[in-house]
Amino acid sequence: MPISELHSTGDQVDVVIVGCGPTGATLALLLARFGVSALILEREEAIYPLPRAVHFDDQIMRVFQSLGVAGPIARAARYNPGMRFVDPSGHLLLDWPRPAGVGENGWYTSYRFHQPDLESILREQIDVTQAANLLTNVEVTGVEQSDSQVNVIYKNRQTGAFASVNASYVVGCDGARSTVRKHINEAVDDLGFNEHWLVVDVLLHQEKPELGDFTIQHCGRDRPATYVRCPADRRRWEISLKPEDNADTIARDDSIWKLLEQWLLPHEATIERSAVYEFKSLVSRQWRDRRLFIAGDAAHLTPPFMGQGMCAGIRDVSNLSWKIAACCNSSGFSNDTHETLLDSYQSERVPNVKEYIETAIRLGALINSCDTQESLKRAFGGGEDTVRMKSIVPGLGVGLAAGNETYRGDWFPQPCLASGQRLDERVGLKAVLLITASLLADYRQQYSSGDDIGLEIIIADDEPEIVALLARYEVAAVLVRPDRYLLGSACKGGEVKLLIDAAKKFTSL
Ligand SMILES: Cc1cc2nc3c(=O)[nH]c(=O)nc-3n(C[C@H](O)[C@H](O)[C@H](O)COP(=O)(O)OP(=O)(O)OC[C@H]3O[C@@H](n4cnc5c(N)ncnc54)[C@H](O)[C@@H]3O)c2cc1C
User: Fold this and answer.
1) Which pLDDT value is given to residue 385?
2) Distance in angstroms (rounded) separating the CA atoms of residues 263 and 208
3) Cβ of residue 43 lying under 6 Å from some atom of ligand 1
4) How far apart are CA 57 and CA 288, in angstroms?
5) How far apart are CA 283 and CA 351, in angstroms?
6) Distance 175 CA to ligand 1 centre (A)
7) Which of 138, 236, 291, 340 has the smallest count of CB within 10 Å of its CB?
8) Which atom of ligand 1 is nearest to the CA of 197?
9) Which of 307, 281, 360, 229 lies closest to 58, judged by CA?
10) 19 in contact with ligand 1, CB cutoff 6 A
């Protein structure tokens, strides 16, 4: 879209998103699904070309499902059977297998993918989504907020001309060197990991099955390294650098082939791309200032050993999008409701993302350790020779809550309904109350005899998978939020009333 068509000073959108990486693109599509207009301002013309994310999980696939892009993304990705940590003699230290079948979220629990493929699919979806617009080649240079809006100033990188646009909210999805973060608060907490690694993607000339389908973490070596089986003929190596390494010379083809020679020879593959990264572990101290927010790498950075950096950014915007949408769509919100909703973004997200980062740091310690058995015991407990690791599913930090709060903030799976549909297909991005017929009858008797409760409801009794989930939690109702975490649960009519009142208050979508 030409700048001249879209913006002179004073144009207005609901939300300006700074940066169109995976976080910003996903946010624009989520907001559009909630009927909220979003304009993404992106500095670069093209998608970022260097090697980055190769893994996402089933929670993230549910977000893609809700955006209508799970099909193309699944076709471009492949199932990941898991990750193995081995010592220099090849002995298996830590095994993190992933089930071969579809899991509780309705998808494989772990996928391998190529980040530019994913970003292209998201941008194609933006192209056909009326409420979401992307303007490339423009750099945001400043933001100024008043009580009722934010004025965003940006520069056309081709012409050098400046323009501005007004928005109700601005979200900085502008990566590790975020401009928006500078307008909120630059302070970060450093969780202590800081290393330089060389990352190389190669394209195989022919099959090389001996490399295997598992991700292999080569621990305790002179140079610890990660091997990743990516889709199609692409393979990834990440190799730890030493302080004396020169970042420029080590990224030259001849140096790379020397580092790869134990696995692969030059006639077997072409080096597609490589980069030296500083792996960091940072969490910003402040994610919101009134109408400004940060999300994704702008808010946190993790070493990539869990494959969760991009996933965390997508969880951020899954959390934030419905809250901003509720504020845009409900002019009747009291100031308190507005503040409670928007403040809950950071308080809910920080503990969740920290748990991933801290686990990634523990994995990094194992990968780096010379005494791998000792490090294994220290980091993952037990006296065993090989530890079997399970995926972590962190809940949300303190935030929104209602009814019985025991399971508040827990992630809720995606049951298959009797109709054959999955839960999210049926309800889209709405909040939904899953409840037994008898508890609903109790609630109606005490509080509401009318039919319309004003909320999406599924009666559990005819839905065996929902019955089983309620039995697991030992409750008779749960309220699932638009981002698929629980607002709370209920066993009594009074708790149902609290759930319904809170859901209606917080999700006027
Ligand atoms: C080697 C490596 C491996 C990784 N592996 C994984 C993995 O397996 N799984 C995983 O989940 N994550 C992984 N990650 C992390 C993942 O790649 C990042 O977390 C993710 O790309 C961050 O997305 P983002 O949209 O927040 O930021 P970015 O992708 O950095 O996008 C930010 C965008 O903002 C734009 N921008 C910046 N400033 C401005 C401005 N002033 N005006 C306009 N636009 C601006 C930039 O041009 C950029 O396009 C890995 C990272 C690395 C380096």
Assistant:
1) 77
2) 10
3) yes
4) 27
5) 10
6) 5
7) 340
8) 1
9) 307
10) yes
Using the atom order of ligand 1, give the atom closest to the CA of residue 47: 49
Q: Of 172, 173, 169, nearest to 151 (Cα)?
A: 169
pTM for the predicted model, two decimal places: 0.96
CA distances for 50 relative to 22, 200, 310, angstroms? 14, 9, 15
Ligand 1, closest atom to CA 298?
26
Q: Is the pLDDT of residue 352 over 50?
A: yes
Pocket test for ligand 1, best of 16, 17, 20, 52 (most atoms within 8 A of CB): 52
Positive or negative, the Cα torsion across 416, 422, 427, 431?
Answer: positive
Q: Using an 8 Å Cβ cutoff, are 139 and 155 in contact?
A: yes
pLDDT of residue 507: 81
- Residue 31 is predicted with a pLDDT of 98
> pLDDT category, 374, cuts 50, 70, 90?
confident
- In the chain, % of residues over pLDDT 90: 88
3 state DSSP class of 397:
coil
pLDDT score of 8: 47
Q: Is 290 left (phi over 0), alpha (psi -120 to 50) or beta?
A: left
Report the nearest-CA residue for atom 29 of ligand 1.
21
C-alpha R_g of the chain: 24
Is the CB–ligand 1 distance for residue 435 below 6 Å?
A: no
Q: How confident is the model at residue 508 (pLDDT cuts 50, 70, 90)?
A: low
The ligand 1 atom at the shortest distance from the C-alpha of residue 41 is 43
Return the H-helix or E-strand segment holding 424: helix 423-427
Question: In whole numbers, what is the pLDDT of the chain averaged over residues?
Answer: 94
Closest by CA to 108, choosing from 60, 67, 76, is 60
For 401-451, what is each residue's pLDDT tens digit?
999 999 999 999 999 999 999 999 999 999 999 999 999 999 999 997 666
Domain architecture of the chain: domains with CATH: 3-72+113-187+285-367 (3.50.50.60), 423-506 (3.40.30)
Strands of 110-112's sheet in order across: 55-57, 110-112, 78-79
Q: Give the amino acid at 186.
A: E
Q: Which residue has the tokens 């394209």?
A: 203
Out of 183, 297, 317, mutate this one to test ligand 1's pocket (max ligand atoms within 8 Å of CB): namely 297
303 in contact with ligand 1, CB cutoff 6 A: no
